[in-house]
């Protein structure tokens, strides 16, 4: 018997109301409408694809969670002690937010370092909250240096609410690693992983105290295993949610091993923006061992300042690839100068290890044994040379920054494709500077001005040709192909660097 159309329509509408009612109930309980409606409507559900490969972190968190700690710091406010300087606030922002946060007024900073002027004098006042993790049963704790920087007292709280007053054994600002010690025995600890075997795409979790919310877990994947953001180490990049308070907490792989210390985030808003960075655990342990033994970290240096090798520079010097570190400054009387390294050299290897980027060199030299002889492989005038250099100890923040040349208004129009007029460098001036060749820039226009050359700069080399005088310079410039870029070796003050000119 064929059903009455009106009855069928009423029945259908009734079923629809029931479906929506039940679907709403399921939705409010955390379910999904699509999972209920087909059955209620009497329809045959389409088999959904099985969700496979998604990890369950619950057992992992139960295993590693007890070894993650909350770190609370206080300081005593002395009479007349004021608030933090703008430099202190910006250093905190640079360290935690990866240097991408614009200038923030002091009162809007994410972590005030001083209380209001009305705070009681000479009283301990909480100044910050961070995270950390235990690496040994007898109470050694790793965290970030910026978490404990400036603190008078540090307190470590475990997940079972036990609180310990910690001793700060040492902190290293360059790597942002600090080592604490609490009195205890048989404490839960994390297993150390191999950060050198980290792979992009593998699952990881972070545990810490974001916004002072203890024992908070977030998960994600490794998005880059070696992100160059610092002078002395490349960081592990992930998309794990890391926020203020997560600093110092562990980054843990699916085997329950700690592979890094969460240290920085990239943000434009002050909060998590999809990119976070962790100090590789191998580097953190190397630093922690020195802090434990000596209370400080000793690094090597050879007395050079270096810059990147661009494609144009590599091609002009006869290098196959744009790699290595170009020497822009050699410290007078330093190890590199005594060994024979000169400005303009390209350092290709250090103790046999290839230099892919200029930032590789400080890390390799910094990790070398102080007092040891090292072999520096350089590229000079189309040939490779090995130069022995003795590594000496790096003093605190001993470095020289090269200023980028600024353009000066031209006085007259030069007659060559470089946009330069030059004059002879006197013998007396050469002797004062320790040079055997070179010319001095009189005016700079066109390509040279766009590259930043200015009056008084010294031109030592054009591509691979050493410049010994003004006439030779003009002859070399006249033979240049205006369709191709030219690389000049330029000295300004004590700094020597390659400058690429594009016509």
As residue ranges, the low-confidence spans are 23-50, 95-119, 397-413
What is the radius of gyration?
A: 31 Å
Main pleated-sheet profile: 6 strands, antiparallel, barrel
Beta-strand content bin: 25-35%
Helix content: 10-25%
Structural class: alpha+beta
For the structure shown, list the relevant keywords:
503 residues, alpha+beta, 6-stranded antiparallel beta barrel, 6-stranded antiparallel barrel, 12 helices, 21% helix
Textual characterization of the structure:
- The protein has helices at residues 5-28, 37-40, 58-64, 86-97, 145-148, 281-294, 311-317, 335-339, 360-366, 427-433, 446-451, 470-478; strands spanning 68-76, 124-134, 140-143, 153-157, 163-172, 177-181, 191-192, 203-208, 216-228, 234-238, 250-253, 257-266, 275-280, 300-301, 304-308, 325-330, 346-350, 353-354, 373-380, 383-390, 392-393, 420-424, 439-444, 458-462, 465-466, 486-492, 495-501.
- By secondary structure, it is an alpha+beta fold.
- The protein has a 6-stranded antiparallel β-barrel with strand order 1-2-3-6-5-4.
- A hairpin with a 7-residue loop joins β8 (203-208) and β9.
- The longest helix has 24 residues, at 5-28.
- It is elongated, with a radius of gyration of 31 Å.
- The model is unreliable at 23-50, 95-119 and 397-413 (pLDDT under 50).
Topology:
Elements: H1 5-28, H2 37-40, H3 58-64, E1 68-76, H4 86-97, E2 124-134, E3 140-143, H5 145-148, E4 153-157, E5 163-172, E6 177-181, E7 191-192, E8 203-208, E9 216-228, E10 234-238, E11 250-253, E12 257-266, E13 275-280, H6 281-294, E14 300-301, E15 304-308, H7 311-317, E16 325-330, H8 335-339, E17 346-350, E18 353-354, H9 360-366, E19 373-380, E20 383-390, E21 392-393, E22 420-424, H10 427-433, E23 439-444, H11 446-451, E24 458-462, E25 465-466, H12 470-478, E26 486-492, E27 495-501
């Amino acid at each position: 018997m064929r059903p009455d159309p009106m009855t069928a329509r009423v029945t259908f509408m009734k079923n629809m109301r029931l479906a929506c009612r039940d679907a709403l109930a399921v939705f409010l309980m955390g379910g999904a409408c699509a999972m209920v409606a087909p059955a209620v409507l009497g329809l045959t559900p389409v088999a959904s694809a099985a969700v496979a490969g998604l990890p369950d972190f619950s057992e992992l968190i139960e295993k590693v969670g007890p070894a993650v700690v909350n770190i609370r710091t206080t300081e005593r406010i002395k009479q007349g002690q004021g608030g933090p300087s703008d430099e202190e606030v910006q250093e905190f922002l640079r360290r935690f937010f990866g240097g991408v946060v614009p200038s923030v007024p002091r009162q809007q900073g994410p972590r005030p370092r001083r209380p209001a002027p009305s705070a009681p004098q000479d009283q301990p006042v909480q100044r910050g909250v961070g995270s950390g993790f235990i690496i040994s049963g007898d109470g050694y704790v790793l965290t970030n240096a910026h978490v404990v920087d400036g603190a008078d007292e540090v307190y470590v709280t475990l997940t079972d609410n036990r609180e310990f007053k910690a001793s700060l054994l040492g902190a290293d600002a360059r790597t942002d690693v600090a080592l604490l010690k609490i009195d205890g025995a048989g404490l839960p600890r994390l297993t150390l992983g191999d950060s050198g075997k980290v792979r992009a795409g593998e699952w990881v979790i972070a545990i810490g105290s974001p916004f002072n919310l203890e024992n908070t877990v977030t998960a994600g994947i490794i998005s880059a295993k070696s992100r160059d953001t610092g002078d002395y180490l490349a960081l592990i990049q992930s998309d794990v949610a890391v926020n203020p308070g997560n600093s110092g907490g562990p980054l843990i792989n699916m085997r329950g091993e700690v592979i890094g210390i969460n240290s920085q985030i990239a943000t434009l808003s002050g909060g998590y923006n999809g990119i976070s960075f962790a100090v590789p655990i191998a580097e953190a342990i190397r630093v922690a061992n020195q802090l434990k033994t000596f209370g400080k970290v000793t690094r090597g240096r050879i007395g050079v300042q270096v810059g990147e090798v661009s494609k144009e520079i590599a091609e002009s010097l006869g290098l196959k690839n744009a790699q290595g570190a170009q020497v822009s400054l050699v410290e007078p009387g330093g190890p590199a100068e005594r060994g024979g390294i000169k400005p303009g050299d390209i350092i290709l290897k250090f103790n046999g290890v290839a230099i892919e980027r200029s930032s590789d060199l400080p890390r390799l030299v910094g990790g070398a044994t102080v007092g040891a002889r090292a072999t520096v492989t350089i590229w000079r005038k189309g040939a490779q040379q090995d130069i022995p250099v003795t590594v000496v100890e790096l003093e605190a923040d001993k470095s020289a920054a090269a200023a980028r040349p600024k353009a000066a208004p031209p006085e007259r129009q030069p007659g060559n494709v470089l946009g330069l007029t030059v004059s002879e460098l006197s013998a007396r001036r050469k002797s004062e500077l320790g040079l055997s060749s070179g010319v001095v820039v009189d005016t700079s226009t066109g390509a040279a001005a766009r590259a930043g050359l200015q009056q008084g700069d010294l031109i030592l080399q054009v591509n691979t040709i050493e410049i010994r005088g003004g006439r030779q310079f003009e002859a070399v410039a006249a033979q240049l192909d205006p369709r191709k870029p030219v690389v000049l070796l330029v000295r300004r003050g004590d700094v020597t660097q390659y400058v690429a000119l594009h016509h």
